[in-house]
Amino acid sequence: MITKELRILFSEQNPEQQSGLKHFFDSKGIKTYFCAKDGKEVLKEIDRVAPQVVVLDVFLASLDAIGVKQACESKPASPKLFFASGSCDNERIANQMYDAGFDYYMLKPYSYEMLLNRAEQLLGAAFGKKVQESDLEMRVSDILHTMGVPAHVKGYNFLRQSIIMVINEPEVISLVTKRLYPDIAKLNSTTASRVERAIRHAIEIAWDRGNVEIMNDYFGYTINNMRGKPTNSEFIAMISDRLRLTLKKEKLI
Fold first, then answer.
1. What is the dihedral of CA 161, 166, 168, 169, to 10 degrees?
2. I need a labelling partner for 176 at 20 to 30 A (CA). Which of 65, 165, 183, 190 fits?
3. What digits encode the pLDDT tens for the residues 6-28?
4. What is d(CA 42, CA 22) in angstroms, rounded to the nearest whole number?
């Protein structure tokens, strides 16, 4: 497991931005490196510092972000994560980045905390957090099991990952189709539509056959009786919200 030896390389030349990034990540015990917004310079710096995470502007001189990613595929010690950042909210560009194998696309200005949360989640490490990912997984698993979500269906794992993702990054719940489903799909080598359907199927099973008292405890006052089952986002939001509050009370987040 990679812990506080994490190294992040940014294609960033703005002194103010560099200072902000360095201050935040230094406080977490994480090393930051910066280089020119030039694809060839990025490749040289990757060879020099061997970062686990690379954060690139979409458009670079000499070689763009996709070109850098492709060039690293032949390297024996390629970075584990590639993040791309852009200044415009363009779905086509974001999709191009994901299609090229980038792990995450961020719109500038992005939150440093959000960047760290995403890196932690994708790397499977919890830098500086009191609650370990394994403990969080166990808690979510217990809730889903109690509710009656069967562990053998694909939607069970997708639900667990979605809930953990929303606990770590609450704003994702408002971007279910744009962020949540695509990110879970990427983690499981599948498609966003299959993630959506599998989660819906798991919820339907739990709602029809699960523990009624537990369901009422979580959803009784928020779900319209005439409408029936909660939507995927309602189901994920209610569980993640409840668990997040519990973790706060326990001073684990």
1. 130
2. 65
3. 899 999 989 999 999 999 998 88
4. 18
